[in-house]
Design a protein that fits this description.
binds adenosine-5'-diphosphate
């Protein structure tokens, strides 16, 4: 009989022995049971009975069925017995440790930790001495710790999930063991893994993937990048790296990016994560941006080329008439006594002057249209009156070529429309001028105005310019609106022009909200159609007083304010030749002084230059207008200025002038204006 057996004997027989008393009063639970077929609880101390919430040993025996099987919760029993068996088999000292649940009297569940010692004896059988303690609180604390660990893990996983959202496939790879564990797989690589995504060989996966999906020109590169040694070398310097490659065109062309991240903690690199994602959209966007940049660059280059061509054309177009001017002037000097020839040369000079002026005006117009500095100003426009004035302005030109030149406004229902009359007039004049210029003598030119789609407020207007002239080739039509472009036959036939008229016309028509269409057959003629939607005026149009300018019977005195000596001399002579008395001032302040001293009515009108030293024309006008002297401060003032834009005209009127005329002075128009203003002043 061994020591254990003796102890049991003693415990069971000497119920009052001091050892038993000590064991009974131990704070922790203690019990002895026989395992095996004749399983039986041999002893349980007080603390053990208390753990089960029992009052007596008898009660405890009844509750547990007097066996370990009754002590352990039925759900834990199998694993507990198995664990004890395994531990005892492996333990040198026949010891085991298990944790399990129990059901107390009253039904509450508690956790027990159980330290067992096993002995075996032929007589007593398989005996276990067990120290047991209530581990419920400990378990709770452990569960809490586990819970928070699980929570943190969950958060980390969510974070990883969030960060990896862009990736179609994600793998964990152990380079040392050549293992790849899929975490997320795209439809592309799904077939390379088992259904339940079991790990497989990394090297095998790679070669299959590259062969099946990667485009031939990137296969070698990707194969090299996926070599474990290569990955280790790169990841020893960086935490992560990227590989870009293309998918085979015959499968589904696209751009992919593979990111490899070192997730191992050791200095030896083995554990990596690989993420594959499509970068199609980004690459496409990048390519679009690059294309946009290239286009912008090309446009900028084209603009520079166009500007240079423009400048060289301009220089050519200015030099040619200048050359003629020099020539005519030299010829005139050598034929001073031949009146007939002199007149011819002067007429030549006049034509060249007009051409030069046209060129300068056109170039300025183009640059202002392009710079967006020209804005339409809507006024009431009398369409029949406008077309009549265009017709009469070109009547002489058409008659000189013996053209049949007609207008037809019968298609107009409303006569008054709101538009920028001056700009519309410029368009109509230009197209009429071209039709006449490019039609052979004896031909016909017509202007037709039509109205359609009208309602109470607006209508669509069509202005059609038709000729049976030289026509335009299909090829030239595609360049016709480009500056300085002229059809070859035009230049050869010697018809004067700059090739800027239609560029400006198109700009103006678009500014007015319309379109221009050209239909032409070389040798048969052309048809230019301007289509403009315009607001209509329902009210009757005011009647104009077309009284002819009165002759200047009484000698009127004009104050000519001009700082340029040559201009002063020419203008003085022209005015004196027209029957005026002319007084001069070389800047605005002298003009103001002269007016201060003059008696009311002494001067009939002032012709005022704008840009002058000391005091400019605007300032001088404002000073005169604020003098408060009847017959002086209300004197008609006409701006005569080389600043010929709309805004200059506007500024002149705003400063108090009555009219604005651009230099070089058209003496006929100037006399008309003087007559109109002086008549008004005296009426
Ligand atoms: P320009 O008349 O000063 O040369 P435009 O810009 O007005 O410049 O016209 C450009 C070119 O278009 C002309 O040189 C001419 O070759 C052609 N063109 C314009 N109008 C007509 C027309 N009615 N018939 C034939 N050709 C025309």
């Amino acid at each position: 009989m061994n020591n254990d057996q003796h102890l049991i004997q003693n415990l069971l027989s000497q119920s009052n022995s001091s050892v038993r008393q000590m064991i009974d009063k131990m704070p922790g639970g203690f019990f002895i049971y026989r395992a095996g077929g004749n399983e039986e609880l041999l002893y349980a101390n007080q603390a053990m009975i208390r753990i089960f919430n029992c009052d007596t040993l008898e009660e405890f025996r009844q509750l547990t069925g007097n066996s370990l099987r009754g002590i352990v919760h039925p759900d834990d029993l199998e694993s507990v017995e198995q664990s004890i068996k395994e531990q005892i088999a492996q333990s040198q000292y026949d010891l085991d440790y298990v944790e399990y649940r129990i059901i107390q009297k009253g039904g509450r569940i508690r956790w027990i930790e159980d330290y067992g010692h096993y002995t075996c004896d032929e007589i007593a059988g398989n005996i276990f001495y067990v120290f047991a303690g209530d581990a419920t609180e400990k378990k709770k604390r452990q569960a809490q710790v586990m819970d928070s660990i699980r929570q943190a893990q969950l958060q980390r996983l969510e974070m990883i999930e969030g960060l990896s959202i862009d990736y179609d496939s994600i793998f964990y790879v152990d380079l040392d063991s050549d293992q790849i564990q899929p975490y997320r797989v795209s439809s592309r690589v799904k077939d390379q893994f088992t259904e339940n995504l079991l790990p497989s060989r990394f090297s095998g996966f790679n070669s299959d993937y590259i062969r099946t999906w990667v485009c031939p020109e990137d296969q070698e590169h990707l194969t090299r990048c996926m070599e474990p040694d290569y990955i280790r070398t790169i990841l020893s310097k960086e935490k992560t790296f990227l590989i870009n490659y293309k998918i085979r065109k015959d499968v589904k062309p696209g751009y992919m990016q593979l990111r490899i991240v070192n997730v191992g903690r050791d200095s030896h690199i083995s554990q990596i994560v690989m993420g594959y994602r499509s970068v199609d959209n980004e690459i496409t966007r990048q390519m679009e941006q690059r294309q946009l940049l290239e286009e912008t660059l090309n446009q900028a280059k084209a603009a520079i080329v166009a500007k240079n061509i423009f400048l060289s054309n301009m220089s050519h177009d200015i030099r040619t008439p200048m050359n003629a001017l020099f020539g005519y002037t030299a010829l005139a000097k050598t034929h001073l006594d031949d009146r007939q020839k002199l007149l011819e040369y002067i007429n030549g000079i006049e034509t060249v002057n007009e051409l030069l002026l046209r060129l300068i005006t056109d170039v300025l117009d183009i640059s202002r249209i392009e710079a967006g500095r020209m804005h339409p100003e809507k006024t009431l426009c009398d369409l029949p009156q406008l077309i009549r004035s265009v017709h009469s302005a070109h009547e002489e030109q058409a008659a000189a070529k013996n053209l049949c030149f007609t207008t037809d406004i019968s298609g107009l229902q409303h006569h008054g429309v709101y538009t920028d009359t001056q700009k519309l007039s410029q368009v109509l004049h230009q197209l009429t001028d071209n039709a006449i210029k490019y039609t052979e003598p004896g031909g016909h030119v017509s202007i037709t105005a039509q109205e359609s789609d009208g309602d109470m407020n607006s209508a669509t207007y069509r202005f059609i310019f038709e000729d049976n002239g030289i026509g335009i080739s299909k090829e030239f039509l595609s360049h016709i609106f480009e500056p300085f472009e002229r059809q070859k036959n035009t230049t050869l036939s010697g018809v004067p022009g700059t090739g800027l008229g239609l560029t400006i016309t198109k700009g103006l028509v678009e500014m007015l909200g319309g379109t221009i269409d050209i239909f032409s057959t070389p040798g048969s003629g052309s048809r230019f159609v301007i289509t403009l939607p315009l607001p209509v005026c329902q009210k009757p149009l005011p009647v104009h007083d077309f009284a002819a300018p009165s002759a200047f019977d009484v000698k009127q005195r004009i104050l000519l304010v001009e700082d340029n000596e040559i201009n002063l001399e020419i203008e003085t002579e022209l005015l004196e030749d027209s029957g005026f008395l002319v007084d001069t001032a070389s800047d605005g302040s002298i003009a103001v002084e002269k007016l201060q001293k003059a008696a009311p009515g002494y001067y009939s009108l002032i012709l005022m230059d704008i840009q002058m030293p000391v005091m400019d024309g605007y300032q001088a006008t404002r000073t005169i207008r604020s003098m408060g002297k009847p017959g002086i401060s209300d004197i008609p003032i006409i701006a005569l200025s080389a600043n010929a834009f709309d805004e200059d005209r506007k500024m002149a009127i705003e400063s108090g002038m009555n009219a604005h005329m651009a230099k070089p002075v058209d003496i006929g128009l100037l006399l008309e204006k003087i007559s109109e203003l002086t008549r008004l002043a005296h009426s």
